[in-house]
Amino acid sequence: MVTTVKALPTLTHLGMTDRRILGFKASALNVQGFAVEAELAAVTSAHTRPSYKQREFLVVVDGDGAETDFGDVHGDDASPVLRIIEQAAAQTVASPSPVPPSAPPHATPSALPVSGWRFNPPPTWPPTPPGWTPPPGWQPDPSWPPPPQGWQLWVPAVAPAQTSPQPVAPPAPIPAPSAASEYVGVNGRILLEGETLILVRSGLRSKMAGHTQESRRIPFRAISDVRYKEAGRMVNGYLQLGLGGVELQALNVGNAASDPDTLLFTWGKRNDFEHLRSRLQQVVTFNRASGIDPAAFPYDGASPTRPMKLNASPGAGENTIGHQLAAGHSPPTGPARSAARKGAVRKHRAWPVVDPPKTTPLRLPKLVASPAWLPGDVEIEIVGEFYREHEVRAAAADLRDGVRAAVLVPEPPSSKYPDAVAVYVQGYHVGYIAKEICGPVHRAIIDFAAAQDGQLPSCPAEFYENRQGQQIALLIDPRPLGLPPSLFSDVPDMAGSVERLLGQLADPSPVLHGHHDAARRALATAATDYAQVKETWSGDRPADAWPTLENRAKALIQQFEQASDPKVAVAWLMYAQCVRYQGGRRDDTLAGYIRCLFYDRNNSEAWAELFEYVCAAPHIPMLLNLYRHVPIPLRTGPARHLLAVSHGQDRHGNMPAHRGERLRGELKALAASQNDSAPLAVLAENAGRRAEKDGDEGAAIAAYREAVAAGSTDPRVADRLSIWLVKQELYAEAEKVLTQALQQPPTAASTRDRLEKRLRRCQRHLPRLS
Q1: N or C: which end of the chain has fewer CB within 10 A?
Q2: Tell me: the pLDDT tens digits for 149-161?
Q3: Residue 494, CB half-sphere, CA atoms under 13 Å: how many?
Q4: Angle 721-723-729 (CA atoms, 0-180°, nearest 5)?
Q5: Which helix (H) or strand (E) holds 21?
């Protein structure tokens, strides 16, 4: 065993047994096992390539030419490692475990017993009759070429397929398990027994979510749809059942826990629920293909949910927070109020807290009344989490029934900041509402509490990771508070300017057939001068360089417009490029890019520069609206840029992680609604690589398959997916993946050769398996 260095996946050591070469991270070996491995029986060669810091880049090659990277080993270790691998591989090839030691598969064909094996001549030899076996003493003709390196002349016999299969009954949508299959979620569990799904609501978490029904039996033929949301490390996922052909209602973190047909699950259970989703999707597909009407099959309905009681222990006492989890619930406004409650509200009208302390405590104080549950889709970011790291961690770890409940508490009049609004999540003080909006929010909460018997507003809270640590966002419906949603929408000035200018792209581009020779020659000269000025260091650049080029562009624009010359679009692009480097010219820059695209929608350079420019202040509605105007054939570039922006990997890096997740989701939904496959492929490729980086092979393979289905020809996707498919002996699917990728041959010759070799291997197996 020697040390190694590899970033993705992280490796620290390289080891070898009598059968395998293994790469792993020592500190995570007992958790994730071996990160990289290669069978010695499949190894045809191993070599190193020069790396850095006196290290060697170790690569192992199998019979298909596929390379496995085991990272950088120290120069002193490289030679012994290569020698050990080559010796072990040679011994393994000479005596493979499936073949008797006395008859190696590469020996004379007649030396191997034919029982349980069949002769497999290489494609370079003359064809043999079906079922032919070399007789004793048979030798290949010396004039025949030698078999390819690693070729197996004897392979295990495959049972012949039946030529006339007997009629069988139609298969059930899901094979009935020998024992009940159980999937345990946050607010209940699902059991599969035969062709029946049993949804069980039991335990404290289910009761806290308001579910009163213990269990429900649902036949498979009553299941009409399945909706699935993946779980994150900080946010639960959910699986929603569509029953009886009824359209699924939209869910979010606020109402998913209380939906009677939805089960929440944690990150640790994601593989189990992905398997369950796959099985139920088979049921839905079977029902639709068989013409089954789910509405014709009765199933156990759900009882209405009741208020959830969420207990938090604020320091010395105990506090109970009640939430109405039903979707669209409005706080009670009836005239019946108790005199005692009225007195309490009048007594603590400024701060609806029993025996209020003089300042905001770290734990939620005892409230006059249980808060009113106001879930919605308006996002409010919290500030000050950095200074309450302990409370934020405690609130993040306290996940009950799939929802982290936030309560908005106005600061008391005696506070240093009497207009502030404190935010408590799961009873912990995690931050405040931003100061720009806290004034009207504070007044609205006080008025709301006075009108609602002292109730304070409460809503779901979501936790996200960013560069500074954890960030919290609230999802609230502000309308019961008398606040417009626009109060919480932070629209950058950049977004407002873009929205005003986009109206120019509503109509088709004008038809231009003119030609202005002198202006075109002047444009070419100006383009050369622009490139020279751009490459000049700012300290050596003349102060009037950009204004001079701007004036030249303006003059050319006027000449091209008068001549109806289509080169006017290029002149407008140059104008935008010149003014963007001058301070205070944001709107002029945007106008130049939009005007260029007004004349030429297919100017990919203008689209690329415009997206890069506006992402300095990314605003999701503006970015999606701008993306809608991009011609579909040109959307791959902008889609990749928006994907980088969503992960904070663009030049500006200004988009928070939770907004990036929202941007990817809405971009995917937009592409699906327009049957736009290019961004769907780009998003799936990215999701697969990230899942593979996290060690989630199942999610990675599912994403890669989605990318290929959307038309991806990315060689990395085809390489990773086809390796897995070949290991699973899914040669037909692997052939389709590789054929699609090779329609646009990879630039790297080694990658192209590797894919072509694997494609030939798949094609060799297909006739035998057909």
Answers
A1: C
A2: 667 777 665 544 4
A3: 19
A4: 105
A5: strand 20-24
